[in-house]
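Q: Hi! First time doing this. I have a protein sequence and I read that you can turn it into a structure. Is that right? Here it is:
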Amino acid sequence: MALGINAPVTQSGHLDDAAPIEIEGPAAGSTWSTAPMAAGTSTWAHATPALGVADQDLVKVAFGGERGGVMDNFIVRIKPEWVPEIHLDTDEANALGLHDGDVGKLIKE
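A: Yes, that's right. Below is the predicted 3D structure, encoded as structure tokens:
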């Protein structure tokens, strides 16, 4: 938005609809062949097949604590070598009172 780009909304890593972009500044510039995109969701879970979920599944994650809660629509991304972890944006983490290293419970329905 700050650059005035009408970026497509897509899942992170899905760049089929992304377009080339060139950014030029006073000291240097840079060109990317498939860069501008807006993440369709800011929440996703890295997992392994051992957790009983499949790549692209949508799951919920429950968090405990004083301001804990359940968040819906985490997109699962699978790679056997990944350590299970979730990604959410700062606003979501702050709303739930979460800190780096906190633990959530993955819920598949």
